[in-house]
Amino acid sequence: MTTTPEAVRRASPRRRRAATPPDPAKPLLPATDPVRLLDPAGTPLPAHADYPEPPVEALADMYRRMVIGRRFDIQATALTKQGRLAVYPSSRGQEACQVGAILALREDDWVFPTYRESMALVSRGIDPVEVLTLLRGDWHCGYDPAARHTAPQCTPLATQCVHAAGLAYGEAYQGRDTVALAFIGDGATSEGDFHEGVNFAAVFKAPVVYFVQNNKYAISVPLSRQTAAPSLAYKGVGYGVPSEQVDGNDPVAVLAVLTRAVAHARAGKGPFLVEAHTYRMEPHTNADDATRYRDGAEVDAWRDRDPVARLETYLRARDVLDDARVAAIAEEAEAYAADLRTRMNAQPTVDPMSLFDHVYAEPTPQLVEQREQVRAELAAAADEESER
Ligand SMILES: Cc1ncc(C[n+]2csc(CCOP(=O)(O)OP(=O)(O)O)c2C)c(N)n1
Ligand SMILES: [Mg+2]
Question: Is the pTM of this model over 0.90?
Answer without folding.
Answer: yes
